[in-house]
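Recall that a protein's primary structure is simply its ordered list of amino acids. Everything else, from secondary elements to tertiary packing, is in principle encoded there. The following example makes that idea concrete.
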Amino acid sequence: MSSHIPTISGIGSVSPYGTLPGAVHAVPLQPRPIVRWPTTELRTAFLVEPFRPTDVAPGLKTRRLDRLSVWALVAASMAIKDAGLDLNGLDRSRIGVVCATGLGCLELTEAFLQSAADNGWSQTDPIIFPETLGNAPASHVARRLELSGPNVTVSSRGQAGECAFLHAASLLRHGQADQVIVIAGDTLTRTAYEWYEVAGLGFIPSEAVTAMVLEHESARPMRPYARLRSVRLAAGKEPFTGIRKVLAELAGNRAVRCDVFDRSAAAVIREALGDAATIVTEGDVGRGLGDTGALFRLATSLYTSPAGNLLLLTGAPSKQGFATLLVEAP
């Protein structure tokens, strides 16, 4: 890893519940904990009341946009404001956008395919089609903010959020961008909800978008949320070898909060760190966020964890290797 350490300097999250953006009365965007689901574990699910996107991003036109694109624009605007970035004083050709989504622009994709089923392909609305593409949210963010740096959308099965982080950090380390807005999210339609219900997967599907600003630690004076101190990808028959190596790099016996997919990974962490580690296994709501849950768990952990370090371990050890991402909070 180079001396330029990728740093999270701004966070924005949004999850309007049950109402189309742009069609509700103006209310402050204030998330509150969801308390209707009893649990003894740490709560990482929040409810954001309905709000007007234009109250967060003035001048935003949402009439023809998919909800995922609208939320990406709002979350990106919140993250930039939270990071204290003045885009007018920066080289916008050096600011990139990396967006992760597991399900894409479901709302307008469903509308487009339904119109084709009802009226035939020749009678579908051509204006809708561009908004069905998976890279539409990242494109809208770049277009609205006039960012001409790298623009990438990833939809890796099971690890889209992690891939977005890795790709953004790579852009910074290789000097291809000075700042990168990392966005992850999925929306939920009635059809998708019914599919989850019929499939009986055992968790509650949900929807949200989180955006973060990553930049070099040396880019400017700032108070970062967290620093990406180490990134490893362990694959093959013994993925936990990589996990043990990362754990060994933790200086001292400081408290570490660990978010993990797999309970066998939790056993490895406990073996290496003992009582210094707080183990948090993935919750039902996190699994309901398509393939992008990693960024949501990380964002909520940064807000709630008193630990000196935060270790986010995600992946599928028994199938495709195990991705490990170590984050040290300031």
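The longest helix spans residues 67-83. Residues 16-29 have pLDDT under 50 and may be disordered.
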